[in-house]
Design brief:
The chain is mainly α. The protein has four helices and no strands.
């Protein structure tokens, strides 16, 4: 379950970065980190903290919405 979540997280970030036409180096610069760190996240080697995930998504011009399911 954790591996699946980590993979999904990495794919969300990778897809968002590519959709925004931003390189790993540009993204790293925007959030004040290294290209290597971004690469490790996108390859599922590292899982970003929630705050880092939000910083990445925001730096790419996207936003995260929390939606409560209708039961």
């Amino acid at each position: 379950e954790d591996k699946a979540r980590d993979f999904y997280t990495s794919q969300i970030i990778l897809r968002a970065r590519k959709d925004a036409n931003v390189t790993q180096s540009e993204l790293a610069s925007r959030i004040n980190t290294s290209k290597s760190y971004i690469s490790k996240i996108e390859n599922g080697v590292l899982t970003p903290s929630v705050s880092t995930f939000y910083r990445i998504i925001t730096a790419l011009g996207f936003r995260v919405e929390i939606v409560k399911p209708i039961i």
